[in-house]
Amino acid sequence: MTIVINMRDGVDERGIRIAARLILDGKLVAFPTETVYGLGADALNARAVKRIFEAKGRPADNPLIIHIADFDDLGKLAREIPEEAKLLAEKFWPGPLTMVLPKEEGVPDVTTGGLDTVAVRMPAHPIALALIRASTPIAAPSANISGKPSPTLAEHVIDDFYGRIEAIIDGGETRVGVESTVIDLTSERPTLLRPGGLPLEEIEKVIGEVEIHPAVKGKLVDVAKAPGMKYRHYSPNAQVIVVEGKRENVRRKIAELVREYRSRGLRVGVMATERHEADEFFHLGGTEEEVARNLFKALRELDRRGVDVIIAEGIEEKGLGFAVMNRLRKAAGYRIVWA
Q: Could you give all domains of the chain from N- to C-terminal order, each with its CATH number?
């Protein structure tokens, strides 16, 4: 049985105590962060962490991110903390930034996907911080079945995991909507492994130029040092097609594709920043922040409405747009139409 703990009105101390006890007992608890909902277990309990992989159907070589609530906890997880990590933590933690660092021996191999590095972040959400402080550092990937769109509402987690995990904390809708940005600080130069809720431009203001890993642009890799690099991700049941190009050309191309797919007898959904005629439509919003916040919700909602094809409008790859386009292209399996 899964208990759902309502914290839509804010942190509930009794609910936190219940959830923390479950974490310390080796159980699984889904909880909100500022980015997406996480599926959490005691990061230092190998048996508990293994249950995350089993529940999600996640490949064992896909490392997890450990969530902490205090900077001092970083020294228990990483054997070296370079100056860049201290600068980034001071500027952006708590926040949607994950740093990959050399692993401390006490961190189980299952948590890091067998790697000698560890991915760590400090979430900017009062419920997440309260839960960690009441328990232990928590390993938590997104709380969805592996390969599916990440959850930004407790209802999404309930759809995927009710009856399969011990508890779900309902903290309402997440604020950012895409996962954290991941920076590798174990390479010769700081390297972006995954764009996310903290724009790359902001990071480069603090530590200078950051290299972009080829996996960010879709190149296949043998070893994933961070989530989202190697396997199929963010995909709904419907086929997703991303339309990219100049705004007016994109608008015309979307209308053309809607007519084409409907002529084949398929139900078509469109997710875009302005209205389109289709069987189903989801308005993503007008700013990059709104688009990021609504991205995964749109994919899940159009799936729920039973469309066969989802046509998604591409946006400019700046700021949060970089993360949005990374997720959209992966959701589409790189089925991109240029307009």
A: 3-217 (3.90.870.10), 239-338 (3.40.50.11030)
